[in-house]
Amino acid sequence: MALKQQVFIGSVWSLAGTAGQQTVNFILFVMLARLLSPSDFGVMAIAAVVIDLLALIGCLGQVQALVQREELDDTAASTSFWMLQAFGLAMTAIVFFSAPLVASVFAMPSLTPVLQLLSPICLLQTLSAVHEAWLRRSFGFKWLAARMVTASILGGIASVGMALYGFGIYAMVGQRLLIAFVLAVMVWWSLPWRPKWRWATADALSLARVGTDVSLVTFLQIANVRIIDVAVGYLFGPHVLGQLRIAWKLFDFVMAIAVQPVVNVSLTALSRLQHNTAAMASATVRLIGVSGTALYPLFFGIAIVAPDVVPSLFGDEWGDAILFIQILAPISVAATINYFLSSALTAAGRTRWILWQALGQVVLAIALTVVSAPFGVVPVLIANVIRASVIALVNVWLLKVAIGAAPAMLGRALMPPLVAALAMTAVLVVARPLFLELSDIALLRAIATAITGAVLFVSLLWFGFPSWRRNMHMELKPLFAGKRASS
């Protein structure tokens, strides 16, 4: 099967798994938002920052390191597994014993038991990392999709049940624990590979070197986003942070469906092209262009319908999130480029470049947050959009130097959907009074606005940019032709 068809099929399965998982999670999030308080979500947001960052350190970037490796044998995989278990145990212990200190820093006493209960997640993730790498190498996204959806459903049922029985924030704790456990069990069940009692120091050093670079980069990338959560939680308290989580959750949902499935497949696909820089550059630009086409109308559309959607779905107490959503929507312009940098440079063997870029991004994020925080939460969010935009420009230059992806190529891929999305947004803003008169039911207004926006965007893109239409036809034709030939 051709690489393009493998990427397409892998993306479809990745989309199915991610969309299924995120849809289930989003529905459950809406239900929990009506059962729990914004402060509960704020405390859980801080706990998630700690767990996610330390669990990431524990995994040592081994999924990406093993996927990127040209040849993977049993000895290298087993070495990686045993190395990971040591790190997983260490991170679990660090989270458990540091929980009281973290809680005192944020003046959130309830954070201590929450962190201690969540600490085993660090070990559970290391138990499944090598198995996940094997599946990704073989484009086994079907199994990965199945486990994500199953874990989300089971964790969601448990969390809603616990919330209904008055467990409060521990409903979300139970959800995270059960999801991590089910993910680990299912990946072991779906793959027959088992670690052997083998250890190769050369493999350990090689995998640790590549994995450390990737892990540090991912750590810094997560930190770039979570710096805002930490600052808001520390300066403005868990209630405001809980409101911000609504905005992030909406965007995470859209990002997971529109971009993450392609990102999940991109490292595997681009690694196959590591000896053909021109082909890698072309593939990267195409991936970014497809993601922008999906992402731009969704982000700008959410900003338009937020005044109708947020109160209807989450309740009136979450109204502050509307402004947060509208401020953060333009970040989508930068996100389409930023999300693919790591995969492209990792496939090209430029992991050190990613590390330095991410480090610079953290410094910029901290500086902008420190400068803007005294003026309130809104300036902090605006500063975050500025940070993402500046970094996107840097990333365009890095892609040019590393793999030869010229800025003009990226511009041709992204300008048509961006212009169409901005035009769609302008029309919807002007037509907003008409939609307000259309119905007193907020969700009906939101649906009517969304349908109108979708028709506008597709029409503008299809009829206004013939070159985009021709390129899209050329991209899709081989995929479906390949499917017909194989049937």
Helix/strand/pairing class, anyone? mainly alpha
Count every helix, treating DSSP H or I runs of 4 or more residues as helices.
18
Q: Determine the fraction of residues in helical runs and give it as a percent range.
A: over 70%
Mean pLDDT over the residues: 81
The Rg value, from CA coordinates, equals: 22 Å
For the record, give the distance between the C-alpha atoms at the N and C termini, rounded to a whole number.
13 Å
| Proportion in β-strands | under 5%
Q: What is the global morphology?
A: globular
Which runs of at least 5 residues are low in confidence (pLDDT < 50)? 478-487
Helix-strand pattern: HHHHHHHHHHHHHHHHHH
Total individual domains: 1
Largest sheet: none
What is the count of β-strands? 0
What does this 3D model show about the protein?
This protein has 487 residues and is mainly α. It has one domain. The protein is built from 18 helices and no strands.
Question: Briefly, what is this?
Answer:
The chain is an all-alpha fold and 487 residues long. It contains 18 helices and no strands.
Helix-strand blueprint:
Elements: H1 3-35, H2 38-59, H3 62-68, H4 74-105, H5 111-118, H6 121-137, H7 141-164, H8 170-190, H9 201-258, H10 260-271, H11 277-314, H12 321-328, H13 331-347, H14 351-372, H15 377-403, H16 407-438, H17 442-464, H18 466-486
Helix pairs in contact: 1-7, 1-9, 1-10, 2-4, 2-5, 2-6, 2-9, 3-6, 3-9, 4-5, 4-6, 4-9, 6-8, 7-8, 9-11, 9-12, 9-14, 9-15, 10-11, 10-13, 11-12, 11-13, 11-16, 11-17, 12-15, 13-15, 14-15, 16-17
